[in-house]
Amino acid sequence: MVHRSWGFGQIKEFDESDSKLVIDFKGKKSHHMDPVFCVTSMEVLPAKHILARKETEPAKVKKLIEEDPVQLVIDTLSA
After folding, report:
1. Which of 15, 17, 26, 68 has its CA 20 to 30 A from that of 78?
2. In the prediction, which pLDDT does 26 show?
3. Strand 2-3's sheet: what is its strand order?
4. What CA–CA distances, in Å, run from 46 to 52, 66, 70, 72?
5. ∠ at Cα 45 (78, 28), nearest 5°?
6. Number of C-alpha atoms within 13 angstroms, CB side, residue 44?
7. Region at 30 (left for phi over 0; alpha for psi -120 to 50; beta for the rest)
8. What string of DSSP letters covers the chain?
9. The Cα angle at residue 25 between residues 24 and 29, in degrees rounded to 5
10. Would you say the pTM of this structure is higher than 0.85?
11. What is the pLDDT of residues 18-30, one digit of tens each?
12. CB 54 within 8 A of CB 61
């Protein structure tokens, strides 16, 4: 997920006690957010999206940039 102000975040769990998503942002770990607010303020990225891959598998993306940039473009366009 990408938030306009906080950037990339990953949903870690759903806290049933207060009906909130628990999301890890850089510099803002375990942030509780109302799911309804998330729908209007965040964009959900598919796991294969280049921005998601940059955060979840940075070494792989870096290697593709250095060794096979054409494949990186192909992967990016087909995601």
Report:
1. 26
2. 86
3. 28-33, 20-25, 7-15, 2-3, 42-43
4. 7, 24, 21, 16
5. 145
6. 7
7. left
8. -EETTTEEEEEEEEETTTTEEEEEETTEEEEEE-HHHHHHHEE---TTSHHHHHHH-HHHHHHHHHH-HHHHHHHHHH-
9. 50
10. no
11. 999 999 998 899 9
12. yes
Determine the Cα–Cα distance for residues 23 and 20; give it in Å rounded to an integer: 9
- Token look-up 């998601």 returns 52
Q: Measure the CA–CA gap between 27 and 44, rounded to whole angstroms.
A: 19
Token representation of residue 36: 């309804």
How many residues are recorded in the chain?
Answer: 79
Type of residue found at 7: G
d(CA 33, CA 65): 34
